[in-house]
Specification:
This protein has three helices and 23 strands. The protein is an alpha/beta fold. It is globular and about 65 Å long. The chain starts with a helix and ends with a strand. The relative contact order is 0.09.
Length: 204
Amino acid sequence: MSLVTTIKSNPKAKQFALTLIAPKRNPRPRLWVRWFLNPLKHKKGRGAKIRRNSRIDVFPWKKFEVGDLTTIESYCTINNGSGDVILGNKVRVGIGSVIIGPVKMGNGSGLGQHVFVSGFNHGYADGSKNSSDQPLDIRPTVIEEEAHIGANSVVLAGVTIGKRCQIGAGSVVTKDVPPFSIAVGNPARVIKQFNTITQKWESV
């Protein structure tokens, strides 16, 4: 039996290990984790840039991968505590954006400024309990390659935004958007799709 398996099977040992990694009431990895453990665990591609004044709250038990030539701009927050965060090559995460895993962004995709993308909701099925004391409703969110999300938009858990989509600024995306679509509004709806025959964006 491995050390990790032993710790996981013992509640007290597991709680002690978690406390070493992050304070109980503050879901942010301790300094030693950020400096020494995370660089060994997570992948950062060639030419990738993570601005120093971003908050990268990533833990060693889930993946955090940043592809080649990807940029995470200033004042962003990235958290993989509930699921992997995978950013492909040449991804741009705009100033002040928030990504909470599980989230996957394909090559060449991007977020504008102050975009919120999450892969979970707080559970609230039991009306007799505070939602913060209930299990998370985890549903991975996917932004496919070359799709771009406008500033101040929200992408909810479980949504897939297809290849080369354009999401208008301030949109709230509550359901899947098919590839090669333009969607806007709250809730976001598709207003145009790219016609491969005419090679034009056409209203739907």
